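Could you help me review a protein record that somebody else here produced? What it holds is a sequence and that sequence's fold in C-alpha cell form. I have pasted the whole thing underneath without changing anything:
=====
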Amino acid sequence: MPETETHVLLIEDNPIDILLTREMLSKRKKTTYTLKTVNCLKDGINILQNEQPDVILLDLYLPDSQGIKTFDTLFGLMLDVPIIVCTALEDENTALLGVNNGAQDYLLKGNITAALLSRSIKYAIERKKAENKIKYLALYDTLTDLPNRRLFFDRLSQAFSRAHRYESKVGLLFIDLNKFKGINDNYGHEMGDHVLQAVGTRLKGSIRETDTAARLGGDEFGIILQDMKDETSAKVISQKIIQSIEKKIHVKTHNFHIGASVGISFYPEDGKDENDLLNKADKAMYKVKKSGKSGYCFCSKNQVENVLPSEDNL
C-alpha cells in the first residue's frame, strides 16, 4: 500500500519526455504520484497562482523561455516549492547554474531512471523543508511565531521604499508590556512565555494583513503600519491593540491582567532612518511608561493619551 502521495507539476513541452516521466513515476510502489503537466512556462505560472504542488520538474528549454532564464523567472516568484531542473546531457553546465541559483537538484535527460527520479523528488522536498526551517529560525521568534528583530527591520526598509514610491507614510509602534515583569518574578518564565504567546496572537488580530507585528525582544514588540494617511489611523490601531492586550489572559489556573505602553513615530516626518524612527518611538513609549498607565504617545508630541479599559475588561 502506498505510504504517501506527492503532487508533481511537470513543465515540459516534449511529449516523449512527458510520457517517460509519467511511466517512471507510476512504477514506484511506496509513493503515489499525481502528475500535472503543462508545456510552457506561462501556463505553469498560471497554475501556481492557484495551486501549490509538492515539487516542480522544470525543463529549461520551453517554447516561451530558454535556458537559465526559465529557472530564474520561476524562482523569482518566491514560491515555497522545491524545483528540480531537467535538461539535455550536453547542457549540464546550465543545470548546475540552476542549482547555484536555488534549484534543489538537476536531472539530465537520457540518464533518468525511475529510482533516480523518485529519489531526487524525495530529497528535493526534504531539503526544501530543512531550508525553510533554517529560514524560519533566522527570521521568526519561535515563542510567539512573530517576525523577529531582523525581519522587522527588513520589512521596515521595504515599507520605506513603498512609502517613497507612493508618497505615503509609514507608522511605527513601539510596544512595551506593563506589569509583565511581575508575572515572570512571581509565577516563573513558563507562565510568562504563555502570556507572551497570547500577546502575539492578539497583536496579529489587531492589525491589517498589510501590516507587520514583530517581537523585538523580551516583552517589547514593534508594529509596522503601511500606507498611513494621518495620525488618526495610528491612534485607532493603538487603542485597539492596548484594549486587546488588557483583556484577561488565562493560563492554567491563573488569570493575568497586563497593559501596554505604546510609542508612535512616522516616516518620513519623524525620521528617514530605520533605527532613528524606532528610537523616537521608543522614547515616546517611555513617556507613557512613566505615567503608570496604559496609553500611547506620538513622538512629535509630549502628550500621553491614556486608554481606558474596554467594557469587557472592567
User: Anything to note?
Assistant: The mean pLDDT is 93.
